[in-house]
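Exam review. A common question shows you a sequence with its C-alpha cells and asks you to describe the fold in words. Practice with the pair below. Do the first one on your own.
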Amino acid sequence: MSTSPSGRRTGVRFGAARQATDERALSAVPPWLVVVPGLLVAGSESLLAGRGSMVR
C-alpha cells in the first residue's frame, strides 16, 4: 500500500481529532441520558403497536 506521507499524516490527525471529540462528547453525556430516551421510545412504540388502529 503506497500512500503519500502528507495524506497519511492528515488522516491520522483527523482520526485523532475525531476520537478526542467523541470521547469528550461521551464523557459529557451521562449514561442515563442515553438509556432513558431509548426506554421511552421502546415503551411508546410497544403501546402504539398494542393499541393498533385505536390511536389513529
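Now try the second one, then compare your answer with the model answer below.
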Amino acid sequence: MSYRLKSVLNRLSVTQNYRFVMGLCLLGIAAPFLLFPTYLLFGTLAALLLVVVVFVMYRPVQPSLHHLPLLIFSVMIVAAILVSVDPDVTLSKSTGLLLGIGTFLVMHRENRSPALFFRALLILLGLGLGFTVVGVFSTNWVPKVPLLTPVLELLPTNVVTLPENTTGGVQANQLAATIVIFWPLLLTALKISFHQHKVARVLLVFLTTV
C-alpha cells in the first residue's frame, strides 16, 4: 500500500513539475511580444493567445482571496485602454500586466512544493537582476546629487535603445520603480530559511543584495 501511495505521489510530482515548467515556457515565449506589443503585431496577437491558453490551463481550482482583486484588476486594464489619451503607451503597460497576471496564476496553481518554490524564486530574482542590468545600460543618468557624480561618470555613456523607445533612453525614476517592484520578493527570499540548503540560502541572499 505504501509503495502504491509513493508511486502515485511521484507521478503527481512529475506532472506538477511538467506543468510548472510548461507554463513558464509559454510565458517566456510570450514575454518579449507582450513587453513590446507594437514592435511586431502578429507576434503580439500570438502571445495574447498563449496567455489565454495559460489562463485556461492554470485557472484556479478552488476560490481564494486573490481571485476578486485579480478580476477587478483585469477589468480596470480594459477600462484604462478605452479611456486612455495615448493608447500606444497604455497598450504596452496593459500587455505587461496581463503577462504578470499569467505568471501569478502559474506560480499560485502549480508551485506547491519547496523545490518548485525555490526555483520560482531564482527565476524571478534572475529576471529582476536582468531588468536592472538592462536598465543601467539604457538609462540617461542626470547628475543631481554631487556626491554621486563620480559614480555616474563610471557608467557607460552609450545608451542602449530598447524597442518602442524613441526618447533614446529611460529615466532613472523608471529604473528605480522597477527595482522597487521586486522588493517584496527580495524580502520574502531573505525571510525564508532553507535549513537544509545552505548554499541556496547564500545564493538567494547574494541575488537580493545585488
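Model answer, second protein: The longest helix spans residues 2-35. The chain has two domains: 1-112, 113-210. Full marks require stating both points clearly.
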